[in-house]
Amino acid sequence: MPSYYLPFSQSTEYLISPFSVEVILALTRAGAKGKTASEFSTGVDLPSEEVTEEALKLFLPLLKSSNENLRLTTANKLYINSNFSILDSYKKLAVSTYDAATENVDFTKTTETANRINQWVEERTNNKIQNLVKPESLDDVQLVLINALHFKGKWSNPFVPSVTKSDFYVSATERTTVDMMFTEDTFKYAESADLDAKFIELPYEGGNVSMTVVLPNKVEGLAALERNLQAVFQPQNYQELYVSVKLPTFLTETELNLTPLLKNLGLATIFSESADLSGIASEPLMVSEVLQKAFINVTTTGTEAAATTALHIEVESLPLPAEYFFIADRPFFYYIRTGDVVLVTGRVSSN
């Protein structure tokens, strides 16, 4: 599992879209050659190019679902400097495999072009992601690759509309007050002795999308869980059980520069003058930075989440007593997935 699933800090809220990162990296890898290309496998553990492209051809059309209860959309776009040419073969691949739109822009007009890119991002993320690209970041840039993801879903098992003020234990010696949601219903629930944690799957209406909340049994047990995320993401021994659930409402917004992390993982050549991106253009190219902004809002009715990654190149409850309790009154880890694809993952450590 790539390390960008992991939080950067133990003390802050954290949110990232692994899916958005992987789409942008795959789109870049499609134009890489030699050592530059091999680092995508050895460094960030991307599947082979053939496997990735076949999976995306099947999966991306599914990420255009929309109904009154669930909206899940993704979009890719290439912004190309008006005096710069990318290879026809790369443009065709971007369109056919990644469903990417292309647009020629004048990167010398940095403010105008940044506004143009940001407007597209805002439109694709229901205005949740704003000002992704700064004008000063477009100096000497020839190509910008963008992936935008937006998700909005209603809980299949809604929480009680009102919230209560409850204690949330930030640590063994510190606590704060949060707005706590409550529901009782039948959920997929699991307990892991090895991970010393509880799991619950909270489904959304209208599609194969759910949020999994992973709650350590100890107040200060989250760090140990995050050191073992490979096991956290493995299938758990779920049972359909009637569970009393308390979960805080939370809103998280993050802006991450993924460049240092990707370099540390071994994806270094693309950021240097030794980069071989000759599958994109005949002129020498290198990546200047990889950025992501992400947003999530979890309430009693459901969840809204959005993420954008930019790469610059140059029902009623059953009347039963609950026997199982899932009380998220301490730091926890969560992820939203559809099938085997992790859309967003994050941590709530305070509120």
UniProtKB/TrEMBL annotation:
Q: Name the InterPro entries for this protein.
A: Serpin_CS (IPR023795), Serpin_dom (IPR023796), Serpin_fam (IPR000215), Serpin_sf (IPR036186), Serpin_sf_1 (IPR042178), Serpin_sf_2 (IPR042185)
What are the UniProt keywords, alphabetically? Protease inhibitor, Serine protease inhibitor
Gene Ontology annotations for the cellular component aspect, listed alphabetically: extracellular space
Supply one GO molecular-function term.
Answer: serine-type endopeptidase inhibitor activity
| Serpin domain location | 1-351
Similarity field: Belongs to the serpin family.
Protein name in UniProt: Serpin domain-containing protein
